[in-house]
Amino acid sequence: MTGQVLRSVFVAGVLSLVDAALLAGLVLAAGGGAGPGPEGVVNPTVELSTDYFQQRPITEAGCCAAFDWSTDGARVRFLDARDGMSGWWSVDVEEAEARFETADMGYASPSGRYLTLAEGTLGDVRVLDRETGETTLLRNVGGAIRYSPDETRIVFSIRQPRFGQPWTRSATIYVADLDGQNRVSLGETAGSVVAWLPDGESLLVSARRNRDDTRGLWQMNATDGALRRLLAADYLRNVRLSPDGTRIAYVRAPEPNPDLAGMWVLDIATLATTRMPLAGSYAWHPTGEGLIVIPVRESAADTHTLWWVDVADGAATALTSPETAPLRISNMEWALSPDGNAIAYRGADFLGLWVLNFGMSLDAVLTPAPRTTPSQAE
After folding, report:
1. Listing from the earlier edge strand, what are the strands of the sheet with 75-82?
2. 240-262 confidence digits (pLDDT tens)
């Protein structure tokens, strides 16, 4: 793609970080490799080593209903029933030792202090403060809430009782204090709240203002509901805010215009949009500087490949290969660790949980090659 560089560098375990960085520069400059691959992708000739990655199962086969990382990244939490106890369990990613956590099957606030539990069938939720043990019943909040960055406020949507799919029905967006007090309506839209922005003063909303309006992304003031249009586009999927709140990644699909289809990144300050060279299941890296992307396989017999995509210049680098890390993910069920150096995933063959640590490979991509002086080259 014009103005974007797509480079594929498989970093071998036998290479030092400096050598790997130098190799990346050489392959990029040469623009060639061992043979043709997908359009714009270079196939390298370096020897690969599986010692460079740590890939191992952490549960038995057939586990689990749902999973995610603990906030410190030391454990993977999963929903399961075993040993007569149902609820959230966790397993140490180093020792693969499982322990029971809680029978409360809710979702946690960003810090993990608060747990949100569904209550009844009328859209109520109960918030459990894990530090104090106290609970607060929030009535008529649409069955789900999003916590502000400082966890002092919440936002929720209540959809109008009409026929049709949820994303076609109008919903009123509300903000309130954590205890449900001081509830304020911010307005009605046909869409949903994606996230709070880091400043806690505004929201990212994917919506149409009315039936005749073009769908798009909006920045909504969390005090008075004022809207700033960020993007006008239909067919938006997988909209995610970067950790630093400066960019938005999204996928345009199914998009009838091939020039618009694929994964894009929008700069909130300038409203500039950049099409990424890859599309697939993805997660923002904690730095906000890039995306970890796993494209769809061409066939079920193929393995998945983990990629780093730099959102500043669109450069894409393969972090794994079938030889270094034979990765087969069931139904694209995976989660990026809090430090951005590993993924937990459900194995397609084993159907249990696995962890793949690719931190050394990513470090080699992100570490710039040192300058070489004439005296050093002698």
Report:
1. 66-69, 75-82, 85-92, 98-102
2. 999 999 999 999 998 889 999 99
